[in-house]
Design the sequence.
């Protein structure tokens, strides 16, 4: 893509210090956005922001699961960078366990980070986006939120919850010029999936029609498209980017 279609806009990427979030932050930076990298660790967020293409990026420490921190962080972001045009809710965790052994904390922590976190940031940016009658919100869900997965009841529930959140936000804000979509990645090579054993990867590849794991850039390019002007007539959609796993 040669154009810088997000030139001058401010974009927030939660969990942007590494993995898919970092890739999305870089893609949005290449599109001309000034990126607020939000992470639990402020130092890694700032370090990641400093490495992005172009100028004007900044890192912010925030636990997305905590609404008070999210509201305060949004205020700091707008003070430092200006009004927010793009929000990418990417922060997420796994705490896998079989149902019988799953602890309350394992369920609650995953829902708090993955689902409540996206709600917290979406609610925080809503007033400004509605006032400006423009904005794009992108949630990173998972194919697991569409299909379910043994051993991931907490994670799959949180990611399915994001599907409902995405469609509700899309309906509620459409008349104000704000779009909301989601990407459902399949298996993408990151720290999160590095924990898989070779046998697990072999098993996965059998279920992926394109026959390979995905790369961060293959999510980032789609994210850039969905928050940009090329997708101005797309809202409320869940786009699987998964090598054909879920059709
Ligand atoms: P990752 O573990 O490399 O990165 C996640 C980032 O989110 C980390 O920087 C982490 O510190 C941050 N984070 C987690 N909880 C947070 C909180 N409460 N507040 C602030 N930041 C927080 O994971 P990866 O693979 O890059 O995943 C990114 C997103 O994509 C996640 O939502 C994940 O569920 C989703 N996803 C990943 C897939 C994969 O194959 N890697 C597949 C499908 C979805």
Sequence:
């Amino acid at each position: 893509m040669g154009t810088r279609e997000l030139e001058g806009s401010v974009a927030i990427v939660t969990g942007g210090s590494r993995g898919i979030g970092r890739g999305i932050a870089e893609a949005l930076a290449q599109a001309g956005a000034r990126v607020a990298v939000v992470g639990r660790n402020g130092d890694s967020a700032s370090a990641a922001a400093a490495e992005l293409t172009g100028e004007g990026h900044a890192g912010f420490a925030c636990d997305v699961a905590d609404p008070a921190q999210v509201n305060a962080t949004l205020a700091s972001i707008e003070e430092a960078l200006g009004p927010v045009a793009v929000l990418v809710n990417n922060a997420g965790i796994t705490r896998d366990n079989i149902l019988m052994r799953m602890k309350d904390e394992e369920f609650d922590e995953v829902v708090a980070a993955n689902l409540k976190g996206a709600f917290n940031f979406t609610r925080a940016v809503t007033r400004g986006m509605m006032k400006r009658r423009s904005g794009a919100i992108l949630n990173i869900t998972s194919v697991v939120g569409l299909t379910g997965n043994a051993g991931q009841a907490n994670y799959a529930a949180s990611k399915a919850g994001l599907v409902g959140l995405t469609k509700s936000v899309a309906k509620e804000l459409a008349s104000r010029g704000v779009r909301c979509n989601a990407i459902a990645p399949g298996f993408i090579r990151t720290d999160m999936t590095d924990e898989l054993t070779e046998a697990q990867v072999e098993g996965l590849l059998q279920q992926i029609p394109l026959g390979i794991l995905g790369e961060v850039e293959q999510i980032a390019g789609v994210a850039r498209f969905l928050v940009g002007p090329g997708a101005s007539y797309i809202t409320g959609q869940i786009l699987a980017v998964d090598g054909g796993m879920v059709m």
